[in-house]
Amino acid sequence: GSWGGSTGGVSGPVFEEEDQGLVEFHLTGFGKFGHLKENPTEKLIELIEEELRVDQGEFLPARIASSHVWEVSAEFTDDALSKLHGNLNNPGNRPVVLLHLGVDCGANNFRLEQKGVNEADFMYHDERGFSPRKQPIVRKNGTTTHTIQTTLPTAKLSSILRKQKFDVQTSTDAGRFVCNWTYYLSLHHAKKSGALVLFLHVPSVSQVKLATQLQFVKALIRQIAVQV
C-alpha cells in the first residue's frame, strides 16, 4: 500500500510463488501541487491498479509489487523513500525496479531522466511550505554539483519505445524541485538497497491524453523488465 499517500497501493505480491522469475516493480506517482489540482501521475497509478485487479498478466514479464501516490513535499518523500527502499526484500540476483512518475507541465513528450542532482532549488513552496534555495539534498555527498546516474539503459529504452511510435527522449535535467529531490534520494538509497531506479517525466494531459500515457507507462515497464 501507499505510505500515507492519497490512494491505497497494491499491497503485497500480485503473483504466486512460482512467478519468482519476474522482475519486481514498485511504482510511485504524485498528488496535486500548486495550481495543478489533478496530477496525471496520480491518475496513472489508479489506472494501473485497476488493470492489475482485472488482469495481472498485462505487465509481463514484470510483477507490480506495490504502487503509491505521494504528497509533493520533500519531507514526505524523505520518509516514503526510506520506507520503500528499507522494505525491499534483499533482491539478490533478482532485479527490483523503482519507477517514479512525475509531471512536467511544460513538456510535450515523455522524458526518461538519466540522473539526479544533489541540489534543491525550489522556485516555489512544496505542499508543506518548504522552499530551499541552492541547498544540497544529501549533505554528506558534498556539493550541489554531485550527480547520481541511473544504471538502467535509458538511451536504449528510448530508442525501442520510439520505434513503438511513442514520443520519448532521454533527459539530463529533472529540474530542482520535488521530482529531482525524489530521484536523487532514491538513487542514493539504491546504493544500499540494490534497487534499479528510473524517473519518468510525463507531460500534462492537455499535451498527451491519459490513455496514451497509460499505454506508454505499460510499454516502458515491459521493456525495462525485458532489458534487465
From TrEMBL:
What are the recorded Gene Ontology BP terms?
proteolysis
Among SUPFAM superfamilies, the record links this protein to: Pyrrolidone carboxyl peptidase (pyroglutamate aminopeptidase)
What superkingdom does the record give? Eukaryota
Q: Which InterPro entries match?
A: Peptidase_C15, Peptidase_C15-like, Peptidase_C15-like_sf
A Pfam match = Peptidase_C15
List the keywords (alphabetical): Cytoplasm, Hydrolase, Protease, Thiol protease
Which Gene3D superfamilies does this entry report, sorted A to Z?
A: Peptidase C15, pyroglutamyl peptidase I-like
Q: List the molecular function annotations (GO) for this entry.
A: pyroglutamyl-peptidase activity
Q: List the GO terms this entry assigns under cellular component, sorted alphabetically.
A: cytosol
Tell me which family the UniProt entry assigns to this protein.
Belongs to the peptidase C15 family.
What is the protein name for this chain?
Answer: Pyroglutamyl-peptidase I
The species this protein was found in? Rhodosorus marinus
